[in-house]
Amino acid sequence: MLFFKELKKLVCSVSYLLFVVLITAALYSQGALDFSSERLVEPQPGGNYGIKNEEIPEIIMPAALQALYGEYMENSYRTYPIGLYKNVRLSAEEQMRVAEILSDLTGLGREVFLHAREGTGSGGDGEFIIIGDDVQSDGNGGFIVSPGGAESENRDMGEDLEFHVRSDITYSEFQEQMQRVDTILGGGSEYARESLIGFGAVPVTYDEAVSRYELAVNTDKVTGGYARLFSDYAVAMVLGIFPVFPAVIMSMKDRRAKMSELVYTRMESGAKIVLVRYMAVIVSVMLPVIILSYISNGSVWGCYDGMELDYLAPLKYDLGWILPSVMISAALGLFLTELTETPIAIAVQGLWWFVDINMGYRSVASSYSLFRLSPRHNAGIRSFFRTQDFIDNFRGLLVNRLLFAGLSVAVVIAAIFIYEAKRRGRLNGSYKIKRAFARLGKGILHRRDQPEA
Predict the structure, then answer these.
(1) Where are the alpha helices (DSSP H) in 299-393?
(2) What is the pLDDT of residues 272-298, one digit of tens each?
(3) Taking a C-beta distance cutoff of 8 angstroms, is the pair 423, 270 a contact?
(4) What is the H or E stretch that residue 289 is in?
(5) How far lies 206's CA from each of 14, 209, 225, 285, in Å?
(6) How far is 424 from 437, CA to CA, in rounded Å?
(7) What DSSP element (H or E) covers 228?
(8) Are 142 and 165 in contact (CB under 8 A)?
(9) Long-range contacts of the stretch 154-163 (C-beta < 8 A, 24+)
(10) With the CA atoms of 10, 14, 20 and 21 taken in that order, what torsion angle do they form, in degrees rounded to the nearest 10?
């Protein structure tokens, strides 16, 4: 049978073995294959139930202002412009703009903040050292800052600087000012409008902790929560990009072995050949994923003796959450390789994956947005299973997964048309495509060389 021949050819290759090793290593490195240390514990009265983030302006505004002042004084701003940590140091002009924003938020003159920073003994490059605690709450939503701190070098011996968020400023105005800071920093900071909720940290109450626990036990049947965490790691770390490799390798191997002419003359239809190859890639990718998902989920089964567990949860999430991402990655690999006869699909899928995983990682809403290749569950508002977040955003996730499954089918159909066109001689390999790009490049160069009128 053609399917099993293609599947055997794929899974018996060295590249496939490397593929499986990379998937396993990536998931292991993130702790996604063993959740036994992440046991769900029933909350008891009087305990500490963790922290949650809520959009409470009375909490967010003074906390964000305090953080901004501290980073301004150090001229060391923490940002994540593409999901990776970056420390930003501003020029004197940019620091002055931040001082103006602090002035607008507090009602104090810009010179007050410029002088406060000068009092730390910072040099021209803005460096100084703080050793002690220099920020104290005044108990009324404001705080008192001692420029230079109790033990800082070159401490200014003047009076402490006391300030609050202006009482007449609205939360919307505050958000706009903080967004200006984020723009100055180049984006990806805690001060972006959608990220300010991170400053709204409040304790989780006992009743809320009990509600979370009951949702995890009764709705997720415990195992559903772990399956969701595995799916988050699996798609974000590896399965948003890795499936493109088997798809490209399968097509390129025939090119190198000069099998194109033989394959094109087979009696089977082009649709059958492309679909069989596509299904072989999907099955070869999903088989180790399903095995790893059960290894991951099974790591906690012994921790919940006597409780009702959903042993099909890993399979449900594998097919509902992970599979659509695998489908689109494999489909793009087949289509672009068939179209160009080059491995360009790897670069295209890699760029898409990289941009996707670094978009909206702080926001629950964006984590489940319509066009996310890798829906994020382990992001945004912190809680272990986040069952309620999943329930609230289930419809959006469902639409997203159906969209990518449908898009995958459309891309595979396009690959079939390209395959049939080559089979019938309408496309002489990738010659016409390469010639079209060459014409485009010559046209651009020709226009550049034209003298101006």
Answers:
(1) 313-317, 323-340, 344-357, 364-367, 387-392
(2) 889 999 999 999 999 999 999 999 999
(3) yes
(4) helix 270-298
(5) 53, 5, 20, 43
(6) 22
(7) helix 223-234
(8) yes
(9) 154/120, 154/121, 154/128, 155/119, 155/120, 155/121, 156/116, 156/118, 156/119, 156/120, 156/121, 158/119, 161/112, 161/116, 162/138, 163/106, 163/107, 163/108
(10) 180
Q: What one-character DSSP code corresponds to residue 149?
A: -
Report d(CA 196, CA 172) in Å as an integer: 12
Cα–Cα distance, 358 to 244 (Å, whole number): 20
Helices (H), 51-144: 57-74, 92-106, 110-118
Distance CA 165, CA 287 (A): 56
CB 91 within 8 A of CB 185: no
| CB contact at 8 A, 135 and 153 | no
pLDDT in tens, 424-442: 766 654 555 555 544 544 5
Count other C-beta atoms under 10 Å from residue 312's C-beta.
12
Q: Report how far residue 278's alpha carbon sits from residue 271's, in angstroms, rounded to the nearest whole number.
A: 10
Tokens found for residue 145: 């800052």
Q: Buried b vs exposed e over 361-372: b needs ≥16 C-beta within 10 Å?
A: bbbbebbbbeeb
Q: What is the CA radius of gyration of the chain?
A: 28
Strands 51-53 and 135-137: unpaired
For the chain, the helix, strand and coil percentages under 3-state DSSP, each to the nearest 5: 60, 5, 35
Amino acid at 347: A
Write the DSSP string, 164-212: ---TT--HHHHHHHHHHHHHHTTS-BTTSGGGGGGG-EEEPPHHHHHHH
Whole-angstrom Cα distance, residue 62 to residue 102?
A: 12
CA pair distance 30, 40, nearest whole angstrom: 19
Phi/psi at 165 (5° precision): -70, 135
Summary mean pLDDT of the chain: 81
Dist CA 48 CA 18 (whole Å): 44
- Give the helix/strand (H/E) hosting 218: helix 206-218
Taking the whole predicted model, whether its pTM rises above 0.85 is answered as: no
Q: What letter would DSSP give residue 158?
A: S
- Residue 342 vs residue 435, higher pLDDT: 342
Q: Are 260 and 303 in contact (CB under 8 A)?
A: no
Distance CA(390)–CA(219), nearest Å, equals 11
Name the residue type at position 33. L
Tokens matching residue 221: 């049947």
